[in-house]
Amino acid sequence: MPELVVTALLAPSRLTLKLLRAFMWSLVFSAALVAAAVYGCIALTHVMCRPRRGLGRRHTPPVCLSDPTLGEHCFLILRSSGLRLHYVSAGRGKGPLMLFLHGFPENWFSWRYQLREFQSRFHVVAVDLRGYGPSDAPKDVDCYTIDLLMADIQDVILGLGYSKCILVAHDWGALLAWNFSIYYPSLVERMVVVSAAPMSVYQDYSLHHIGQFFRSNYVFLFQLPWLPEKLLSMSDFQILKTTLTHRKRGIPQLTPSELEAFLYDFSQPGGLTGPLNYYRNIFRTFPLEPQELATPTLLLWGEKDPYFEQGLVEAISSRFVPGRLEAHILPGMGHWIPQTNPVEMHQYMWAFLQDLLD
């Protein structure tokens, strides 16, 4: 068929897609402005209640970040990008690679309980994803696309000398893990996912459940340049402090030192920009096609997760090859299960991985 004819036939579809994306971006930025107004009021309230608190850069990392029981601090140069990634490693030579991917606003330290628990039978590695902590943090938004982040995970696995791994992930790290298991299935033997859905599932579910949009309102705020960094850092990062330590929605048992383990990196110059650039790429691939999920996966979901509705679990299950997903909605638990309920999480993980150790 002549190229001109093909172009003419595809023109209506291409125009429709462009109009759909333009409409989507208009909605996203409208929601971003509303979210900015809301979070601006919250930040100003914190300033008024705590007038003496400014923008607090930390100059000394908390001692807990160098706890030797968690493992050895190392760096790896990534083959694809040349970036240097920081990671903490323990148990090398004791079993398969167990690779941990953190979420936001966290870092490798969010896996401290799991590093201690599984280093006796696995080579446990918790990375600081690009843009976080001592890992390299490119400034350009385009350096944080899903494709580049997945390439980072591939380079970590191969760079550590393995051909596959057990991928354990939470929040943003879990979103990356879902994608990675689809596009690099040979590198993932098992997967443990906590509190996150694949992008395509989240997209389709949110379009039919308006409540999920309200739960994820911060995503729209983060589409804006520079303002989110400013709001999150006001009053000595009070919004982040509240997010992490809230009695019902956060990690109430977090000690002051453990809280500082997260705030230290974000308080450095540009420390928030890299992590927020993940969100600034999230709508660039809209709309997404449904994808089949086949990697054997343990999914743990908090019944009281304030950011994601329980209905997403059923939506995830509908995309799976039968028999490949073991899903549990954990009563009374919230979003931060690896830190708030490590004992229960470990029990599910040991049972799920037992046949690999026999």
UniProtKB/TrEMBL annotation:
Listed Pfam families: Abhydrolase_1 (PF00561)
Domain (AB hydrolase-1): residue spans on this chain: 96-337
One of the record's GO molecular function terms: epoxide hydrolase activity
Spans traversing the lipid bilayer: 22-49
Keyword set, alphabetical order: Hydrolase, Membrane, Transmembrane, Transmembrane helix
Keyword Nucleus part of the UniProt annotation: no
Domain of life from the UniProt record: Eukaryota
Record-stated family: Belongs to the AB hydrolase superfamily. Epoxide hydrolase family.
The name this protein goes by in its record: Epoxide hydrolase 3
